[in-house]
């Protein structure tokens, strides 16, 4: 069996990935499946951080579009990510993992506050840390929150686990001839406006030379395969400057 290639990995899980076949909400089966994939990663010796989205419950921009104040709507969106984080923490704890939610918004009765110092110490001690509330500020996404936390905890790799098995040149749901990329650099992804992550998130990764892999959360063992250096999904890297 291949050795572990990445010591510390940040996994971004979109809210949609947690709703399974439902139109919205949280599917308990998806919580259990996701928790077991994360636990396998942790048991293999990888230090695991997780950022969860909230799109299965609420998106601030959508709500603001129907008249709500944007900042209020984003606060509500961040609270949705806390709900998903608590569900995932519950799934992990039930499976015997040592997991904790750290939130960018303070709510001490519900979860722990995020500090970079605590997070680094505890992840190094083997705790699975679920980062909730994105960046803690409105007008951002959890993709940007994930890039930020990944850099702050000095992750060696960021994985975006979604319902799609990589990045395509066009929407694979609507186009039968869509082609999946194996490798990309951030400049290509930004220039070609590929549906990877928002630009702010990609710029953070690019500036800090953090590699990203987009893969399918429903592919069993994909996270562990990636940790062992196997090619899965689509990898996005920084284009190295020509000498
Ligand atoms: N959000 C925010 N600041 C952040 C991260 C998220 O205000 O740093 C809010 C925003 O309203 C967003 C919602 O939380 O729409 C849910 O996050 P996101 O849409 O990124 O979830 P995902 O698409 O990954 O499920």
How would you portray this structure in words?
It is a single chain. The protein is α/β, with parallel strands linked by helices and 243 residues long. The protein is built from eight helices and nine strands. It has helices at residues 28-43, 60-65, 70-94, 116-124, 142-152, 186-191, 199-207, 222-227, and strands spanning 8-13, 47-52, 99-103, 112-113, 128-132, 157-162, 183-185, 212-216, 234-237. A nine-stranded mixed sheet has the order 4-3-5-2-1-6-8-9-7, with helices on both faces. Helix 1 (28-43) crosses helix 3 (70-94) and helix 5 (142-152) runs parallel beside helix 7 (199-207).
Please give a handful of descriptors for the protein shown:
single chain, 243 residues, alpha/beta, 9-stranded mixed β-sheet, 8 helices, 36% helix, 17% strand, binds uridine-5'-diphosphate
Q: In what order do the strands lie side by side in the largest sheet? A: 4-3-5-2-1-6-8-9-7
Work out the radius of gyration: 17 Å
Q: Roughly what is the average pLDDT, rounded to an integer?
A: 94
Order of helices and strands: EHEHHEEHEHEEHHEHE
Instruction: Give a short account of the largest sheet.
Output: 9 strands, mixed
Write a concise synopsis of the structure shown.
With 243 residues, this protein is α/β, with parallel strands linked by helices. It has helices spanning 28-43, 60-65, 70-94, 116-124, 142-152, 186-191, 199-207, 222-227; strands at 8-13, 47-52, 99-103, 112-113, 128-132, 157-162, 183-185, 212-216, 234-237. The longest helix is centred in the middle third of the chain and has 25 residues, at 70-94.
